[in-house]
């Protein structure tokens, strides 16, 4: 069976802009919910992201930070593939799939304060496609270049359609000076294909520093002209929901304050992964649960 | 003759905090001026910097940008030591001493809209200690780690006292997302010595990426606790004045928009350079005019 690829990428020597074929908000317009306000839903549809402050209490966040530290300091866990270090230091940059070895993070993936919002927007039951804690340590946290997550998940993991939402839970202050998430509002409605082919086992380096699967500078300039950039500054305990195709990135962090966030990706059950559209072998389970 | 070193640095294996021995504002309190308001003067004294918007017109700034491009594109000038490239690309990151080979920049160093402000604050005639254009290109502009300029100018150039002011003229939008100047307000009243000794010819690498003469992380954490961080967001044509000892740095720039600023350092004539306090040979004239 040949499946038509609606979102081809990394197949060509020039970038293509493709209109989004999928809804952003899957719920019927005006469908009642207590999970989100109508204004929040409209804003998510328009901008491709939504920032909600004060969702988690200071005590809860302290708890998640302690659990992070316990994991990061564990010498036995530390050798697992799930632990990613900064390119120029040995400091833990990300922990993948913490919910598979921490009960606290497992429970958090089920928290109705996030799940109900996501399930409303996607109008379906969801599962965890990817989970990680992004530590971005102080003094030496490196930037993360512009990308659409969907582009990677489609090409490298075989996610068929745009029916997934990322949920960030802020564990420290996210300020403009410590490498906050930066988003291009409205960019989720265009799909910008990337130039070039993906090499095998690309994920091993790309988690530390990206080289492939990044948009070209000309496309980014045009998107920036159209959308601008919004810096997602917010206090600890906030939730940032963003569509899988929203163009985003983050600057380096030379400030003394780490910018640490929990990152869960919820995918609609009907949107389960197939064979990667780029033709490479599937990435390991801790990066893309199947 | 032995000159006592009031601000020793890079001599020890631990950092020392020394109280500032010098005034911040040298003008007599309340001395009349049309160059600055009393509020601006007080703010500069307290925070160690001052942001003034709309000092230069859009036409003037366009003119300086064109002149920058002309210089950056000149293949003959491009090989000069004054032209500094980004560590990982060949893009021009800084041009030093442009006022020595560009009439436009030479004239700008004399502009009363900046000179009168600086001469009031330092209560003396001044000269250019250092001049540069900091280009910080889009997509790949690298961060500049925390430092007090005075620490370097004292140790490597022999600047005796804190009686110099840096003046930034913004040539593009300076946004929090394109690597704006970040300052720690109030940090100019403490001198934080750096750990370790300076190697010979250190400047050749330090202009591209710093390794020596940077404060230790513990001191930066303490300073941050006390002072916080302010991001100097402002439109093109603004002027940012900051004291030579204000702790500052900047993040990387992955946004498509370059963050380009003209940077002049004015030193009081009575504060002319002596032999470097660190005991190394003086740096070349284009970095520290004598």
UniProtKB/TrEMBL annotation, chains A, B:
Keywords: Dioxygenase, Iron, Metal-binding, Oxidoreductase. InterPro entries: EctD (IPR012774), Phytyl_CoA_dOase-like (IPR008775). It comes from the Bacteria. Coiled coil: none annotated. Its EC number is 1.14.11.55. It catalyses: L-ectoine + 2-oxoglutarate + O2 = 5-hydroxyectoine + succinate + CO2. Gene3D superfamilies: q2cbj1_9rhob like domain (2.60.120.620). Belongs to the PhyH family. EctD subfamily. Homodimer. This is Ectoine hydroxylase. It comes from Reichenbachiella ulvae. The lineage of its organism: Bacteria, Pseudomonadati, Bacteroidota, Cytophagia, Cytophagales. The gene is thpD.
């Amino acid at each position: 069976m040949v499946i038509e690829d609606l979102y081809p990428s990394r197949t060509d020597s020039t970038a293509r802009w493709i209109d989004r074929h999928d809804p952003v908000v899957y719920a019927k317009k005006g469908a009642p919910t207590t999970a989100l306000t109508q204004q929040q839903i409209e804003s998510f549809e328009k901008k491709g992201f939504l920032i909600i402050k004060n969702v988690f209490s200071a005590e809860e966040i302290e708890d998640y930070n302690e659990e992070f530290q316990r994991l990061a300091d564990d010498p036995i866990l530390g050798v697992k593939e799930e632990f990613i270090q900064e390119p120029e230091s040995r400091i833990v940059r990300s922990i993948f799939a913490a919910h598979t070895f921490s009960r606290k993070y497992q429970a958090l993936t089920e928290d109705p304060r996030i799940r109900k919002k996501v399930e409303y927007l996607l109008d379906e039951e969801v599962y965890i496609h990817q989970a990680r804690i992004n530590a971005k340590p102080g003094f030496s946290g490196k930037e993360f270049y512009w990308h659409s997550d969907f582009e990677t998940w489609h090409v490298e993991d075989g996610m068929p359609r745009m029916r997934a939402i990322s949920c960030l839970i802020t564990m420290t202050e996210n300020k403009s000076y410590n490498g906050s998430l930066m988003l291009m509002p409205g960019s989720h409605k265009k799909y910008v294909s990337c130039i070039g082919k993906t090499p095998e086992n690309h994920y091993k380096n790309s988690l530390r520093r990206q080289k492939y699967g990044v948009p070209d500078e000309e496309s980014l300039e045009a998107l920036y002209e159209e959308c601008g950039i919004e810096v997602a500054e917010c206090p600890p305990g906030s939730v940032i929901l963003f569509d899988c195709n929203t163009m985003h990135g983050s600057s380096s962090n030379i400030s003394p304050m780490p910018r640490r966030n929990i990152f869960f990706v919820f995918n609609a059950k009907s949107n389960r992964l197939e064979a990667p559209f780029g033709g490479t072998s599937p990435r390991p389970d801790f990066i893309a649960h199947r």
